[in-house]
Amino acid sequence: MADSMIDSSSIGDKQRVIRGGVFLTLSPVASLVLGFIITVIIGVYILPEEYAVFEWFNVLTSFFITIIPFQLPSAIGRYVAVAKGANDSDTIEQLAKSATVLSLFLVPLSGIISFLITPYVFTAVGIGSSYTVVDVLIFSIGVMCMSLSSFAVSMSSGLQQFEKLGIGQFLGSLLSQGPVIVLILLGWGIRALILKWALLGIVISIFLTLAVRRIWTLRGSLHPMRPLIEFAYPAIIAFLFAYIFNELLIRSIFQNYVDQNELGLYGFAVRLTTFISALTLGFHNAIGPHYSRAVGQGGTQALENEVRWTMRMSFFLFLPLIVGATIIAPAVFEMLFPAYYWSYKYFAVLMIQLFFFLLLRPYASVLSALAKTKQVLSSSIVSAIAGGVLMFIFVDYGLVFVVIGYASSGFFAALMNALWIRKEIAISLGIRQILPITVVSFATVIPAVLIHYLRLDPMVELASIATMFILIYIISIRLLGLVTSNEIQKAASFLPVRLAQPLTRTLTRVFTRMHDDKSDKLKTSFEVETP
Q1: Assuming Cys at both sites, which of 65, 109, 313, 318 could form a disulfide with 146, CB separation 3.0 to 4.6 Å?
Q2: DSSP string covering 358-406, please?
Q3: Does the reported pTM lie above 0.85?
Q4: CA distance 444 to 325
């Protein structure tokens, strides 16, 4: 029965991750577009004090859907990916049954606990009279639906069904946020926003149940619980620590030390940052199960090969985007958002944090793939403490420095994870593969700064910086031979043939020297490397 769970597609492992990353990238972009429309409508139809109540529902949602399932969906997803790499269909069947049994128990439990605890939380924070029992009931149903979807998503991700997962997330966004827009216009207020979680969770769960075969089963035996719990409990502690740091500490500092105008500028920068970060999340959500599968296939040596090419691809795809968005930010804010012009300072700092994310996420995924979540926990604790200390040190110097302290936590986490990997696993971190692309990307900042200080018209400045950035990046890539025609061909292979062939020819002409011998000597980072 479980043999059908083993994907026998002829698509190569790396092309599967690329394609999955594309699907998982496009789905949050669609969500962001709908979210922007909802944001505009909220500004007209929902009062700020009403929206503040929803923000607490929003915060509690992430808390309950993580705490009650005890990170067991993540553990199941990891072990499914390892079993898939080893072609162990029996273990996959055991994990599918474990997911089914655990969801039957934990999903209702999450709804009951959230329904009972939420009123006490709201009373404690002083909004006890700002909601109704119906609101809490809808919220609790949403928690149950999102908890159920977490098991379905983890099973699908572990089986590397990224295309179906991306489609499910897209449909979930469309069929949850679309009705929310209509209901707000009909006068439902924050109740419409609360309903979104129930619609999102149930749509994703139903689609994945129908599209991914046999992610649920009651046949066979259960997978042993001990390895799942040993994987999950450090992750849940790390979540709690990060939750306290991100939600409580930062909220406290902002509430007591920060001017409200500056806080508004920062919030606007955060909203714009999500459009960039959403593009990186899809790819990095795909590489976690891919690493686990590599462990099942060939152990740490196979994992090392995967780390090298995924790190290189991540930086080649996203670092120019991050740097480019940062250097054009002043012109864009001045031209499109003059009232929020000084938000670009916070936007630039948050882009630095996103750069650290490019380092942090693959390293954390490596440790999770090897079930070393205790190391991830220690890194989370150290980085949160270091970031919190820096925030308190910088608080007297303004919000920009507070945000710098907050962003630095990503650096400490990446450093700690890198040290753990070097010490305990002794595999290459892929630094040599990403260093040239990193240097080239950051080198484009110098001419951009010079152009900015010429004080040109915003439109002229934007066009000049964008043109200079693209030219310098392309010329540098060509001269240094950082990309080969074979890599471009592999990267484009997930597209339809009619589109892939002309795109490959065009990008090869732009980014590579057609007769450069280095292209033949360089080992492609997209090919499957055997231990």
Answers
A1: 65
A2: HHHHHHHHHHHHTT-HHHHHHHHHHHHHHHHHHHHHHGGG-HHHHHHHH
A3: no
A4: 12
